[in-house]
C-alpha cells in the first residue's frame, strides 16, 4: 500500500526528477497563436452557418478565417514571436480553413444536389488541399532552397484555392439557379481546382525581393487598392466573381513567364515531389 506522505530525502529534494519548471511566457509570443485560434474558430463557425442555411455569413466567416490565417505568420515575424508550436498551430488552421471549411460550405450550398458525386468532389478538394499544404511544409523545411521559390509557388496555393472553390456559391448569391445541372458543373469545377492545387504548375507569388515599383505608380496603385476594397464592400459577390476570373486568367501568364525563364511548362525541380515525400513519411 502506498503511503500518502512524500519519501524522506536526507540530501534535500531532487529537482531533476520534477521535470521542467514553469516559466512566464511573454505576451508577444501568445498573440500570434491567438490569431490562429480565432482563424480556426471562424472556419468552424462558417461550417456551422452553412448547415444552418445562413450561406452569406458562412462564406464571410470562411473568408475571414483565410484572412486571419494569412496574417498570423506575418504578425509573428514582425513581433519576433515565431515558434515551433505556432508553426504546428498554423498548419492545423490551414487544413481547416483552406481545406475542410470551403469544401463543406460549397457542398452544402450546391454539391449535395449531385448526391455522391458532389460529396466525392468535396472530398477530393479537401484531400488535395491537405496534400498541397504538406508539400509546402516539406519544401519550407529544406535547408537549401531553390532561387525560384521566392518568386513562384508549385501549384495554386491553398488560400487562393479556398477563394477559387467558392465560386459556385458566389454565383448562387448573384441569382444563378442552383439546380442539379449546376451541382454537376460545380462538382467538375471543384475537382479542377483540386488538381490545380496539387499540380506542378508554376504560379507567380509576387514575393520576389527583386520586384520594385516605379515611384510614379505608387499613388495609382494605392488608389486602385482603395477602389477595389470600396467595390468589394458595395458589390461583394460581383467583385469576388471578378477576382476569381482574373486569378484564373492570370495562371497561363505566370506559366508563360516561367517557360521563358526556365524553358519548361511545369516545375520539375528535384526534391519537390516524390523524393521529399518518401523521405518524410
From TrEMBL:
Catalytic activity reported: a CDP-1,2-diacyl-sn-glycerol + L-serine = a 1,2-diacyl-sn-glycero-3-phospho-L-serine + CMP + H(+)
Domain CDP-alcohol phosphatidyltransferase C-terminal as annotated: residue spans: 217-252
First and last residue of the signal peptide: none
Main location class: membrane
The protein, known as: CDP-diacylglycerol--serine O-phosphatidyltransferase
Keyword Lipid metabolism among UniProt keywords: yes
Keywords from the named record: Lipid biosynthesis, Lipid metabolism, Membrane, Phospholipid biosynthesis, Phospholipid metabolism, Transferase, Transmembrane, Transmembrane helix
InterPro entries registered for this protein in UniProt: CDP-alcohol_PTase-I, CDP-diaglyc--ser_O-PTrfase, CDP-OH_P_trans, CDP-OH_P_trans_C, CDP-OH_PTrfase_TM_dom, CDP_ALCOHOL_P_TRANSF_CS
Family to which this protein belongs: Belongs to the CDP-alcohol phosphatidyltransferase class-I family.
Membrane topology classification: Multi-pass membrane protein
Domain of life: Bacteria
E.C. code: 2.7.8.8
Location(s), subcellular: Endomembrane system
Transmembrane region(s): 29-51, 57-79, 91-110, 116-134, 154-176, 182-205, 217-233
Gene3D superfamilies, A to Z: 1.20.120.1760
GO molecular function, one term: CDP-diacylglycerol-serine O-phosphatidyltransferase activity
GO biological process: phospholipid biosynthetic process
Enzyme class, first EC level, given as a word: transferase
Amino acid at each position: 500500500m502506498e503511503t500518502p506522505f512524500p519519501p524522506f530525502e536526507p540530501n534535500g529534494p531532487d529537482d531533476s526528477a520534477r521535470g521542467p519548471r514553469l516559466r512566464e511566457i511573454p505576451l508577444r509570443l501568445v498573440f500570434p497563436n491567438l490569431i490562429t485560434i480565432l482563424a480556426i474558430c471562424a472556419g468552424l463557425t462558417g461550417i456551422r452557418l452553412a448547415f444552418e442555411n445562413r450561406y452569406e455569413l458562412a462564406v464571410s466567416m470562411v473568408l475571414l478565417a483565410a484572412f486571419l490565417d494569412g496574417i498570423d505568420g506575418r504578425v509573428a515575424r514582425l513581433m519576433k514571436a515565431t515558434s515551433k508550436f505556432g508553426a504546428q498551430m498554423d498548419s492545423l488552421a490551414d487544413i481547416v480553413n483552406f481545406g475542410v471549411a470551403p469544401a463543406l460550405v460549397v457542398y452544402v450550398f450546391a454539391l449535395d444536389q449531385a448526391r455522391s458525386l458532389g460529396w466525392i468532389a468535396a472530398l477530393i478538394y479537401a484531400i488535395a488541399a491537405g496534400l498541397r499544404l504538406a508539400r509546402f511544409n516539406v519544401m519550407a523545411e529544406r535547408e537549401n532552397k531553390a532561387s525560384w521559390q521566392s518568386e513562384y509557388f508549385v501549384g495554386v496555393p491553398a488560400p487562393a484555392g479556398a477563394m477559387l472553390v467558392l465560386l459556385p456559391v458566389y454565383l448562387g448569391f448573384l441569382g444563378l439557379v442552383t439546380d442539379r445541372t449546376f451541382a454537376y458543373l460545380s462538382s467538375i469545377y471543384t475537382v479542377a481546382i483540386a488538381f490545380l492545387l496539387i499540380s506542378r504548375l508554376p504560379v507567380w507569388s509576387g514575393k520576389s525581393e527583386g520586384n520594385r515599383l516605379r515611384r510614379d505608380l505608387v499613388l495609382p496603385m494605392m488608389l486602385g487598392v482603395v477602389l477595389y476594397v470600396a467595390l468589394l464592400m458595395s458589390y461583394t459577390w460581383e467583385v469576388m466573381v471578378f477576382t476569381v476570373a482574373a486569378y484564373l486568367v492570370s495562371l497561363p501568364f505566370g506559366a508563360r513567364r516561367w517557360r521563358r525563364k526556365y524553358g519548361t511548362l511545369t516545375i520539375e525541380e528535384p526534391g519537390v515531389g516524390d523524393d521529399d515525400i518518401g523521405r518524410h513519411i
